[in-house]
Amino acid sequence: MSYKALIDSKLTLAFNKLKDLAEDVTFTRNSVASFDFATGDPVTTTDPAVSVKAVVIKDNKKDSTSKLQLLFKSSDVAPMSSFSTVTIDATVYRVGTVIAERNYITLLEVFKEA
Amino acid sequence: MGKYIDLQNDIFSVFAMQAWTDEGILTYPSSVVPDNPGTEFIRIDIIPSGSGVNLISTSGIVIVDIFTLISLGPKRSSEIADLLDIHLSGKSFNTGAGTTQFKGSNFSPIKQDRVNTSLGMATYSINFNHFGVL
After folding, report:
1. Is pLDDT above 70 for A63?
2. Is the pLDDT of residue A114 over 70?
3. Rounded distance between C-alpha atoms, residue B84 and residue B64, angstroms
4. What is the domain count for chain B?
5. Residue B53 Cα, gap to closest chain A Cα (Å)
6. Looking at the complex, does the CB of residue B87 fall below 8 Å from at least one CB of chain A?
């Protein structure tokens, strides 16, 4: 087994070992293919959703659930830039800034939709 | 309909025309980020920054960023700027209540793009007046 595959399988194992500390979240994406200048709207296609295990980090100091951080395996959600929303506990969040990406693990900020 | 959406429709109509799409240059507004824009495309910004002859008129500038492969040198971006001139310079467009008139253009030659260094970006800009009818 290559080192990449080994690390990937160990990470999968680690997220599974976290049990209920890691939640099932679903990323969705709308790919922008082009722009229709006649209608003034982007031409998008909805790609299949991706379900992953992620650690959901809440900012308890601010007692707010409007902004969360997610920690997950980078290879589960690639390329990150093409994903627009993520559903956590039936609540839809907008994908925000990638705070850190270290080859195998991504820390992402998400914002609750109004 | 407001003057800004009227202005936008006028300018967008240029890029919706068969004459422009036949040029084969991928065209996007600057706010739209396609997943795969390609290696030759243009990005349009409409900036209605000036006053007009009445409250529903305005003036400003359209800035077009022209992206081409940096390895191709400056020729292709200049060709695209000339194509934009053919379709915009001195022309008038009227899709709604008002009319948008383009004037002469300016061109800033290609430089290496800061984000994607395999691409070069040149900038074409053209002033306009948009006349709304009271």
Report:
1. no
2. no
3. 9
4. 1
5. 27
6. no
Chain A residues in contact with B26 (beta carbon < 8 A): 34
* Contact check, Cβ <8 Å, B35/A36: no
Binary contact (B12, A40; C-beta < 8 A)? yes
CATH number of the structural domain spanning residue B41: 3.30.2000.20
Residue A41 in tokens: 């709207």
Q: Which CATH number fits domain A3-112: 2.40.128, 2.40.50, 2.60.40, 2.40.10?
A: 2.40.10
- Collect the ranges in chain B with pLDDT lower than 50: none
Quote the ipTM score.
0.85
Tens digit of each residue's pLDDT (9 = 90 or more) over A27-41: 998 788 889 999 999
Instruction: Give the pLDDT of residue B92.
Output: 96
Residues with Cβ < 8 Å from B45, sequence gap 6 or more?
B29, B30, B62, B63, B64, B65
Domain boundaries, chain A: 3-112
